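In the design runs reported in the main text, the only information available to the sequence generator was the tokenized backbone. The following block is the verbatim input for one such run; it is reproduced so that readers can re-run the procedure and compare outputs position by position.
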């Protein structure tokens, strides 16, 4: 089932997941799976054809196994009906993005606290790992191995499990749900809301 709840679009565009891509979708809490599919694209087939949207948030007030659609997507799926409930079939599909994945630092980050959003991925992200860079004479910590970051259960942000900062610079390794890995070097982690393009997409 799919449901549109009036007034949800602004929240969908500004909260948990990536803002890139097609019309936003919120999943019911039982489908949210601790944000595991945050940013994934979903193909929806209803009485009036097939359309695509992107998982942008969870819908805590939705009934189990339902999707909450943004107004434009609801208009397409329902053929312009008033907000309500429609039977649908849906499944996760590649997003077909033509641009690289982006790393977006959360507002408030510093060398002592880091949180990075993975935005615009072709498929869901399996993991994000970091290798802090050591600069001679700097305060940056040294790491000779990849450190796996913890994905937050309510968003597409990844943070160190220990809560300790990763300092200023690091190499980041994304592992996509399809197994592909992308390594991006010299990512600035201490600049609030800073955006860094990766070298590819899933």
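Verbatim output:
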């Amino acid at each position: 089932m799919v449901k549109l709840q009036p007034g949800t679009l602004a929240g969908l565009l500004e909260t948990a997941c990536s803002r890139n891509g097609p019309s936003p979708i919120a999943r019911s809490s039982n489908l949210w799976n601790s944000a595991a599919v945050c940013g994934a694209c979903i193909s929806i087939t209803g009485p009036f054809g097939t359309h695509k949207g992107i998982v942008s948030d969870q819908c805590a007030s939705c009934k189990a196994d339902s999707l909450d659609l943004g107004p434009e997507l609801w208009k397409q799926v329902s053929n312009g009906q008033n907000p309500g409930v429609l039977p649908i079939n849906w499944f996760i599909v590649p997003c077909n993005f033509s641009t690289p994945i982006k790393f977006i630092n959360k507002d408030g980050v510093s060398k002592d606290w880091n949180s990075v959003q993975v935005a615009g991925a072709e498929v869901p992200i399996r993991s994000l790992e970091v290798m802090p860079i050591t600069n001679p004479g700097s305060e940056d910590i040294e790491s000779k191995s990849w450190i796996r970051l913890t994905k937050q259960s309510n968003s597409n942000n990844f943070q160190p499990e220990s809560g300790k900062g990763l300092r200023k610079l690091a190499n980041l390794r994304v592992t996509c749900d399809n197994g592909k890995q992308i390594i991006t070097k010299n990512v600035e982690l201490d600049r609030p809301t800073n955006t860094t393009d990766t070298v590819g997409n899933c």
